[in-house]
Design a protein that fits this description.
Number of domains: 2
Strand order of the largest sheet: 1-2
CATH architecture of the largest domain: Alpha-Beta Complex
Largest sheet: 2 strands, antiparallel
Strand content: under 5%
Order of helices and strands: HEHHHEHHEE
Number of strands: 4
Distance between the termini: 49 Å
Radius of gyration: 17 Å
C-alpha cells in the first residue's frame, strides 16, 4: 500500500516558480494550463517526498533512483517528445506551437522501454553509437542525448548551432 503524502499549496507555488524560471532560461515552456501544471508539480513533489527524487508523476516509479534515472523530471524523453508531439509525456513541458495555440496536445506514446529491456541494456557492454556521441554547441556545452535542446542552457544559442561530435 502506498502511503499518503501531503504537499502544501506553498510548496507547489514555490516549485512552480522554480520550474517556470528553469524552463524559461533553458528555452522550454511549461504547459499554460495552470491548474493542470500545478497538479503535475504536486505529483512531482509527492514522488520526491515518497522516493527522494522527482520522478515523472505520469509513470510508475520503482522507488530505486538508479532504476528510475530516466524518468526523473525532466525525463530523458522530454526533448524528443516535445519535438515530435509538442509536449512531453505528462505534458508539463510544451513546445512554442502549443504555447501559441497553433498545436493541440494529444496523446503521446510511451518511449520508456519495459523494465526487462532496460535491465538488459544496462547489463550490455558499453559501445559507442551515433546517438551516444555528444552534441557540442558553439560555447562548448555538450548534450549527450539523441537531439539538442531547443536553446542551449549555457549560451542560449538555438538548436541548429549544435553539431554531432565525431
Amino acid at each position: 500500500m502506498i502511503e499518503e503524502v501531503a504537499v502544501t499549496q506553498e510548496e507547489i507555488e514555490r516549485s512552480y516558480t522554480r520550474f517556470k524560471k528553469d524552463a524559461d532560461s533553458g528555452g522550454y515552456h511549461l504547459n499554460p494550463d495552470m491548474e493542470f501544471t500545478k497538479g503535475l508539480i504536486n505529483g512531482l513533489l509527492v514522488n520526491e517526498k515518497r522516493y527522494g527524487y522527482q520522478s515523472c508523476p505520469c509513470r510508475l516509479a520503482g522507488g530505486n533512483k538508479e532504476d528510475d534515472l530516466d524518468i526523473i523530471c525532466p525525463c530523458d524523453y522530454r526533448d524528443q517528445d516535445v519535438d515530435e508531439y509538442g509536449a512531453c509525456y505528462c505534458a508539463l513541458y510544451v513546445s512554442q506551437k502549443v504555447l501559441d495555440g497553433a498545436q493541440e496536445v494529444k496523446s503521446i506514446p510511451e518511449r520508456r522501454p519495459p523494465r526487462s529491456v532496460r535491465k538488459k541494456a544496462a547489463a550490455a557492454p558499453a559501445g559507442i553509437t551515433m546517438s551516444s556521441l555528444p552534441l557540442p554547441n558553439v560555447c562548448g556545452y555538450l548534450c549527450a542525448r539523441d537531439g539538442p535542446p531547443e536553446i542551449c542552457p549555457v549560451c542560449k544559442a538555438r538548436k541548429d548551432r549544435f553539431e554531432r561530435f565525431i
